[in-house]
Amino acid sequence: MSEEKKRFIQEFVPGKQLTLSHLIANPDPDMFQKLGIQEAGALGIMTCTPSETVIIAGDLATKAANVKLGFLDRFTGSLVIVGSVSEVEMAMLEINRFLSEVLGYTPSRITKS
């Protein structure tokens, strides 16, 4: 007697959230070279869900503080911003605030290293 195979299909339906907010202060210069971005005092790394939110986050970052976009990927929701430690932190705080208060996203605690 053969066993009947069962098939399960899982579907992931993400909510509106920032899944990662991390600030790296004074990263090793090699990191900038490997990432192919301009060297600065800090890197801010964020991941947004749904991924298109990263376009809004990038716009907010450059309007909120004197930072540059190091990397923005609308397909994965990844954002890297560069600038001084205080400017990167200010941009990340504004992104979290706006997405939470205006668009109803779940914010992410900003961690630092």
UniProtKB/TrEMBL annotation:
Organism, as annotated: Lysinibacillus macroides
NCBIfam families documented for this protein: PRK15468.1
InterPro entries per UniProt: BMC_CP, BMC_dom, CcmK-like_sf, EutS/PduU/CutR
Keyword DNA-binding: no
Any single Pfam family the record assigns to this protein: BMC
CDD domains, A to Z: BMC_PduU-EutS (cd07046)
Compartment(s) of residence: Bacterial microcompartment
Protein name per the record: Propanediol utilization protein
